[in-house]
Amino acid sequence: MPHRLTPKHALVCCYYIPQPDLDSYSRRLFHLIEFLRDADWRVTVLAEKGAAGDSSATRLRHMGVPLYFNIAKAAKTLVETELFDVALLGFWHIAQKVIPTIRALSPATRVVVDSGDIHLLRHARQIFQSRSDEGWPGQLDSDYAAAMIKELNTYASADAVLTVSQKEADLIADLTAEERLCFAIPDCEELKTSPVSQAKRKGVVFVGNFEHPPNVEALEYFCGEILPRVSEPVRKAHPVQVVGNALKPSLAEAAEKAGYVQAIGWVPSVLPYLERARLAVVPVRHGAGTKRKLLQALAVGTPVVSSTIGVEGLNLRNEHDILIADDAGAFADAITRLASDDELWKRLQQNGRASFAAEQEPELVRRRFLEALELVLMRQQRKAAFMRCAKSENPSVVEYRRIIHRIRELVRRKIPAYAQIAVVSRGDDELLNLNKRLGWHFPQGPNNVYVGYHPRDSLDAIRHLQRLRKKGAAWLVFPKTAFWWFDYYPEFRRYLDVNCRVAIRDPKTCVVYAVSPGAVRWARQHRGRKRPDESKQFEPEIADFGDPAGSRDRGDESVISVGAEASAISIVIPTFNRADLLEATLETLASQSLDREKYEVLVIDDGSSNHTAEVAKRYSRRYRLKYFYHPHKGIAAAKNRGAQGSSYPIVFFFDDDDLADRQLLLEHLQAHREHPAETTAILGYTTWARSLRITEVMRFVTGIGHYLFSYDGLEMGQPLDFTYFWGGRTSCKRSLLQRHGLFDERFEFGSEDIELAYRLSRKGFNVILNRCAVQYMNRPVTFDEFCMRCERQGRSQLQFSMLHDDPVVQNWCGVRGAKERWHKHKPLLRRKVSEVHQIESGIDRRPPAQRQTLLDELHKLYWWTFEVFKLKGIIEETNTLPRRQPAQLSLH
Amino acid sequence: MKARRRIRATGPSRRRGKGDAVRSSFRRRIDERLPVKAKVLVLSRGHEQLIRFKRCRGAHFPQDASGRCARYDPINSAVAIAHLEALRFQGAEFVVLPPTEDSWRDNYPEFIRYLQRRYRLTEQTAELGAIYSLREKSAWRELEDAISEFRIDHDREPTVLNWNGELQIGELFPECRWFQPPSAKSDRLPYLDKSVDFVAMSGRDAVRLKEARRIATAAVIVAGVAAARDFPPSVVVERLSASPRKQRPSISVVVAQGDVDLPLKRRLALLQETIPAGLDHEILLCPISTSKTPAWKKAKGDLIIFIGPNIQPLPGWLAPVLRLFDAKVDAGVVGGRIVNFDGTQNHIGGIADPNGALELLGAQEVDPASPVFGFVREVDFCATTFLATRRSLIAGSDLPRNFGGHDMAATAAFCSNARAQSWRVYFEPDSWAISFTSAPAASETRSMKAANIRTRRRATIHRTRASHSASRNGSEL
């Protein structure tokens, strides 16, 4: 099975829709998109300005490119829903906006910034060339410095920067101290030599986009200082044509005043003008990048007179390929020579064209561009950029995110699953994302959406709460950001204090009221387990899991560092009758960026009856692979066998239905080097394989229900507690397992990972998230399969809860009250399952207006059924399982 | 373009008074101005009083399948346009934008532009709003046709020099690249000979006309004097043939008549008006009797286009298909977009799983103009009832008699064969057709399931009987 089942996908972000006839940069980006499409890449364009009906948009749509507009609105959705291999960002100021979103939501995407021309260089030259009213030369100021800092930071946070010339590539490489960061991808043109003979060539052509200030200045310089120095007969024989976008009437009028100048402005194609002209002029005095007009003139065989700035970045020699002149007199002389000297004209035409062909032929540029992208894809992402992006965020936003994260933690621990929670909000849906609890905005309008305004007064708020309570709301959360309600609606607060019960009160995070009788009962029942001051209760817990330094201080054992030894990694893959999926997994492990000597794969065949052994044997020829077979014992035993057979200091437990990103192993190793403490494990990032069609149930289990690899609200490098030691996606130090034990082999499916992590957490164990370590789940999930999975999960959770009496474990397992809940829900289970089947089969046929309602209903049913299947597993296991003791296993 | 559909406040207002008088006056004036029994669409929010004419037959726009005022505003102009055309196909003759619905001009600018470009503005007053006759062409139609032909010939949008800056036509045709000369006053233009596609000018000044002909390659647009303020001027398009044209393929359109379809004569008339003049074409009817030779076997065109039962293409559907066949030399089959009566998307084609299951793409999307379905893309099979293919592909294949009908398995099999021969199957986003089937998605899905079963049977057991089975089960003819 091939690793990549779909073509590579690029996101192109730019200001205007790329089009070939507007300006030079637009044309460049258009060419790059063409190259990608020709190489069978999927390309999506996200432009700040434009509309789908524009002529430029039509052209791209016909090339098979979907177009989105408004970067601020569309970027997040796009990056979340699509898997992009590369994001090509046109100009640094666009990149600056988009990079944080990409880094946060799509860590596997490589960010490539196309600089166009280096702005800091152009602006510096422009400022130094300018003169004050008193005639003093301009000087750089703080505005310039601020823009320069942003520009350089943006380049430095990218995975690669494209420049139009090697000179600019070297400049950025010097400034960022990153030799491999920049790639010089020159502009290209596919033009034929002019069919117009030398004898018929007449006139001088000046081409430029007059929205670009250097071109305006160049035209003024040319008409004001150069042309008057050209003799009258030459000017009369070769009048000047000024061609280009946005030529303002005032500028055109001023140019025409010089005599023998015809201001033409925008034309559908500059080609006919270049083809018929005797020569072209490029008298720019500042700017950066390379000048496309010069390339076009050379390509069609029209000799050029240019300033030194005009030929910058191009390998052109004075008097050989082109005439270069930097003062007005010399420039005028060059024009006169070229207009009258046929030999010189012919020589420059031939050499200029040859020089163009050597550097700017489309085929050449295409190859360089695609090779550059391949190189970038082979490389690791720039991780320093993640931190920088996070730091550059508004502190209040960061604080707000922290509050949301803490609320989730508190709610997860203190409020039963599937509770209906109203959250005082201003419409932020993030606040409603409460780990298997259904969140509602308070106040809310129809369809549970935020109503858009605050209650008029306390009475209004009380009425609204009563309405919501009737609708099913059991809890009311006041995030810290809504504490002002207590002062603004004092009667409402009194009403809550009298009629409801405070379940959580944390002045730094939130206050939660139990508002329904059931919730009040729950809060009262769980009161004995709380400390007197709940606000203090959670702080140390969060600090325990959130501060690795703190955790290291707790025990001498945990300060042991094995980071220096983290040079090789063992991948343990337990498998059972999944030979085809395993083959795809092993194939992806064959194409890792890590040297093959630095990793080994251990396939633990847990009693398969198919051709698993043959598959493993086949791959053992390609890299170091050990195959172990034992009769079916369950996942924990298989993992233990793998850990015992491993020979490298890092052990990575990997699933047989996952595909590894090229950088996966390298990322895990590097993260271990960065976090050398023995007690630190690394959690990678998992998403669905791009070849899978994401169904509603798959979307639910990851994005909404958070049953599988849900990373909502988790940030890169964030320390996490033991509940994030997710089997199949985490790696840890082998010495830790040697020292403190292995998986409990009584677990045949599920919870074995969390149980081990719980035991290790007593030794200071924590998990660090590395979003750059990407793997893809390659097996679709159906509703029925997931119900069975939940049932098995329930069984294992009961086992886990019986092994440890710790309230944290009990809370995680959710075993308490399972019997009552099961008896309550059991009679409904069959009907609910059939309802799910009915909705799933018919939802596509429903009219759009009904579909959203049905989806909401379906999600509620998913939630209900998955939890009840867990209960089923718990109850069935209760009837069969004797009381167990914690396992005492070791590697030896 | 709006982000989501707004629920419309429907039903008459309870407050009576000035509003009633205004509506009554509105009805009376419409009755006076429009022909007896003319079918008039009124943009409304459900006020029944607005459409209770004495002489004309009023109807709401937008409306649901039963003719009642739709509960939702169209999500965007594209949906509104498709819905309007569906109603026009069903006989609507006039559309009225009452002054109370002026917000449509802001919310649906492309829809208003579409009306202005295609249909004649018969009346525009402060009391009545604007009345467009859906039976008559707008003054701009000739220009629209010229642009459409240019696209076929040159595979791009034209550039148009608007010589007279007062001529506000750039906004009407934003897909073209409009520009103005540095000075509109001069009788001479600074451009090289034959370097601009179209030149638009007002008045027939001989010197200027000559100058325009000098630089234009494809057409000179001469605008006359408008009959009144807000009304378009008379427009004459003088076609030139200075630029080389592409070889246009000949086409055969195979039309099948369905059970809930428009009368055949009307269908053909509507179809004929969407085919550009000068295009070598023939229209063939799918025979009702299965004993006769299938229509596609008699087709002589380079391209054969199948228009299935209960399907009616929207204006402008053909040029994109021809353009795609021209631009992509590997295009074997090209399908368009099927939309429902209310303008929402029905489907754009589909994908076939390796196990043989067929799945529709973009089925029942509220917004057909969404970027997800807005670009030329490859599909495993294209819209069953609205597809075009090369004759060479048809000639060698064993197609069922009713090919081009609702037999999805047959289309999928045909597309699969084409792909096996290294042809590609494309979806063309700018080619739209209305489906008049009452419950399209449900019937498609049922037929899809049936088709899957048939596909599997055919592959394993009754290979030789496949074509009979498909023709019995799949056809609605």
How would you characterize this protein structure?
The complex is a heterodimer of chains A (892) and B (477). By secondary structure, chain A is α/β, with parallel strands linked by helices. Chain A is built from 34 helices and 27 strands. In chain A, helix 24 links the parallel strand 19 (569-575) and strand 20 (599-605). The longest helix of chain A is centred in the C-terminal third of the chain and has 33 residues, at 848-880. Chain B is α/β, with parallel strands linked by helices and 477 residues long. Helices cover 29% and strands 25% of the residues of chain B. Chain B has helices at 18-33, 77-89, 103-107, 109-118, 141-154, 206-215, 264-273, 295-298, 318-327, 391-395, 408-420, 440-460, 466-474, and strands spanning 39-43, 57-61, 94-97, 119-125, 129-137, 159-162, 177-179, 196-202, 216-226, 233-239, 251-255, 281-285, 303-307, 311-313, 331-339, 345-347, 349-352, 358-361, 377-378, 381-382, 386-390, 424-435. In chain B, strands 11, 12, 13, 14, 15, 16, 19, 21 and 22 form a nine-stranded mixed β-sheet that branches. In chain B, helix 2 runs parallel beside helix 4 (109-118), helix 5 runs parallel beside helix 9 and helix 12 packs antiparallel against helix 13 (466-474). The longest helix of chain B has 21 residues, at 440-460. Chains A and B meet through helix 2, strand 10, helix 11 and helix 34 of A and helix 9, strand 19 and helix 12 of B.
